[in-house]
Amino acid sequence: MPDSTPGAATGTTGTTGRTRHTAPDREPAPDGPDTAGGAGLRRTLKLRHIVFLGLAFMAPLAVFDTFGLVSEQTGGHVPLAYLAVLVAVGLTALSYARMARRITSAGSVYTYAGKALGAPVGFLVGWSATLDYVLLPMLNALLAAIYMGAVLPAVPAWVWVLSTVVVCTALNLVGVRMAAKVNVALVIVQAGVAVAFLVFAVRAITSHGRSFGTAGFDLTTVPVTDLLGGASLLALSFLGFDAVSTLSEEAERPHRDIPRAILLIVAAAGVFFLAVTYAMQTLFPDVSAVGDIVGASPEIAKYIGGAAFQAVFVGGYLTAVLGCGLTQQMSAARLLYAMGRDGMLPRGVFGRLDARTGVPAVNVLVVGAVAASAVFLDLGSAASLINFGAYVAFAAVNLAVIGFWVRDRRAGRPEARGLGAAVLQLLLPVLGFAVNVALWVSLDTPAKVVGAVWALVGVGVLALRTGGFRRPVRAPDLAE
């Protein structure tokens, strides 16, 4: 088992018998950690690739996914709900950036929590996080069916679901570099459509004599429980910053570029989401006037720009669907790969890479198969269920930063001393943890029940892998 003492160079030994030492302040070796097949994930991604992959995962047009549902829940306070969740995400992004600077692995929250809080906790957090990682491609396929149904209602929803899954799975199997290049183009198209939507919305507001006010941000006119309930559905809009941490082993300069990408993605998306929802809420203070709550955004697009713009809007959303599907499937496959490589999931299935492409191909296919089940779910249930795992992951990463701060202070490391370290590594993570827990509590009851059952299944898997907890849990086999 590798030495996880802070400040120590950590030896990582794969099945090939090679040992690599990586100091925490230097870029790691060009390869990723060894796998059961003796190969590693390939370092081919630059900062621009990582940022675009994160934005594609998040999708600039994701702001339209749950607007109708959240507006109904909060009584016309979607911008305020986004502001609330942005506080939680912003604090958590700082924690992710700190952990990504320290640990460069494909495991994201699974590895962070495992190294800071202990291997059993890391596994259970990673297991809970798989709920949102694996189910997000399913939600993405479901949204494709909803948006295309607004334009071509005669086509069965399952056609759009399966078409989306097949295309995204095929592109993921080609390799991460190709997927990154495709996503650059897709994000640019999305940004153009989103900006056009904002321009049309502002024109509609002024032409209809409406005024820009602060009603959508007025905390005194919405119950806190309703606000948190609506905000709890919005974590999935920001999951791109979390997803890029799973690409650390494929980044050329992970210590520098992954933290930068995380903060850039959150800042850009937060400003954009607030601007768009403010315009939409100003135009439709009461979203029930739109008619279709779930499909409110395509209807609003038609209202502000006519049928032609609605077609352009839906076409742009299809690029978002493909971009999201690519990166969501990519990140889910790599989280499963990290857990399989460590033997916490069957290594022969989940811990192997395709020799030609360097992609965990079996994992990509597994996630694609799960995504195809979108034909059986509705949007509200899927969004709430996915956010269960997201808030567990967010809270755990904040705790991981605190855990490392405590360990570093005990070890006498200078970066853990002083007021600045206490603020960045204790106070802000505590606040991030508290806000995420509040949002998690605000999820609907069915999502919490299903999430709790999923967590109990994880406990069962852990018991099976440790012989009824008689054997120690293997720590993530990765260097800091």
From TrEMBL:
Its main location: membrane. The chain crosses the membrane at residues 50-70, 76-97, 109-129, 141-170, 182-202, 222-241, 261-280, 300-326, 357-376, 388-406, 418-441, 447-464. Residues 49-388 form the Amino acid permease/ SLC12A domain. Pfam families: AA_permease (PF00324). It comes from the Bacteria. Keywords: Membrane, Transmembrane, Transmembrane helix. It is a multi-pass membrane protein. It is found in: Membrane. Residues 1-38 are annotated as: Disordered. Residues 1-17 have a biased composition (Low complexity). This is APC family permease. It comes from Streptomyces andamanensis. The lineage of its organism: Bacteria, Bacillati, Actinomycetota, Actinomycetes, Kitasatosporales.
